[in-house]
Write a structure and sequence with these properties.
heterodimer, A: 372 residues, alpha+beta, six-stranded mixed β-sheet, five-stranded antiparallel β-sheet, 23% helix, 36% strand, B: mainly alpha, MetI-like fold, 0% strand, disordered C terminus
Chain lengths: 372, 225
Amino acid sequence: MAAALVADFGKRFSSGTTIAVELRLETDTAPVSVLFGPSGSGKTTVLRCLAGLERPDTGRIGFGDQTWFDAATGICLPPQQRRIGYLFQDYALFPHLTVTENVGFALRGARAARQARIASLLRLLDLHGFEERRPSQLSGGQQQRVALARALATNPRLLLLDEPLSALDAPARAPLRRELRRVLSGCGIPTLLVTHDRVEALALGDRMLVIVDGQIRQSGPVHEVFSRPADLAVARTVGVETVVPGRVIARADGVCTVEAGTARLTACDPGDVEGDVFVCIRAEEVVLERGSLSRMSARNHFSGRITAIQTEGQLLRVTLDCGFPLAALITRSACEDLALAVGETVTAVVKAMAVHVIPRDGTAPSTTPADR
Amino acid sequence: MDWAAIALSVRLSAWTTAALLIIGLPIAYWLTFSPRRWKFLVEAVVALPLVLPPTVLGFYLLLALSPQSPIGQLYGRLTGSTLPFTFQGLLIASVLYSLPFAVQPFAAAFAAVDRKLIEASWSLGVSRWATFLRVIAPLARPGLLTGMILSFAHTLGEFGVVLMVGGNLPGVTRTASIAIYDEVQALNHEAAAQTSLFLLVVSFVVLAVTYALQRDRSVRWPLHL
């Protein structure tokens, strides 16, 4: 039997807002699923209901063949019996305990075994030398790593991460994002990660569930959800842009070359990117041209066939196939000037600066060859 | 100075504090964490001794503890003795009279513990009881200490309830505050002054130490990082 977390529950708040969530996470392949939504959409409540910290009003939550919650029979397993790892947004480290005591808080068994486990976790998360520190003596990033080590210590069946990087300032975020990706793909524990940050979703997620107003509106591979939102609410939430999986093939002089589909893109090198990445291009940054190109500063020119033209308010969204799907947002008058129509071939121009590369270090199980 | 009375007062205070630790902690825990809507009623009952005249409390206690009452009868059957005008009866009265002085600081200290820390412990698989011992109690320690010291100091100084329930039996129920009253009645002002000064100094030292300890701890253990 395929192990999975299956949840279908509802909760009503005294303020009048309700959440009604239906989700399924495959837990035998250990992917990272991202629960993405604007603040106030009920993301954290969903996580708390899954953890057993909050009790839904209706529905059912099951993990494998174990029932965690069932409104009909009144079953509601306490968090202690769900064997999960929960990472709180502000980490919730025990302020009166040292790093070692925090990480080993829930460990049982022989002293030597516990110490070995703590030592291996501290090594994994690069926390050597901080064993005797208290949380107040650590930086935000170190606290985050201690909290992650603590959550991993008991080998949970499911990791629930609530905005794991949001409490950090921007410079600390990028290296920790990569670190988190490495640890999550290394530990082999299925993970549900809550975030409202697009970069975080792209960098960490294999699958993505978009929650709007307490309801899951779309789920699928991350780049697919970003590139093909199911409805307007999802599109507004994720912000439409082209997101394609790619691979860094060269880096030099502050720019990197990324292979995406059959095309090659030039992008500003955001730092030490390597290997698998996501390439993001906002539709409003794409310029369409007809005919021969004169010399220009923009580094990326793609010849492509128009596959769709859709109205979007006052603007038109033009989708091209130029080795990878690319969306451009243009005015109606521009469309008329260029006499654009489905099936025509045009050239898309994108500056290197407008090509955002998001690193995805580690393995990415759900990025299937078909996506490449 | 009436050393026997002072010794009795200290003994009564110590027993009361110990009893309040056992009774007060679960009450405070329940008041802090229970989702019940009617818990304000329990809060009101616990706070009653703050506003009730000690004579009123003492009167009802006398009725409740009398050998004719169910409690008195049960106690009589178990121990073969009665409660009014005994040290045990005095202890029960003191515990009830000082209940708010223990429960309120305890509950305030529990409420000040970040709820997320408790949930973090639970989600790590640690039981509620172990979470109380390893997270809540250590973080609430300054408040628990305050509650205990207030209970001790308040019992040391109680008068009305003792007089109503305990009477004035030397060595059994004659506490320091009653001894002072007796000395004044007997126009023995010098003895009254000595015992009074002793109680004043002890109370001040106890409270000063409490506040000093709390200041120290709040610096060393910031609860919110």
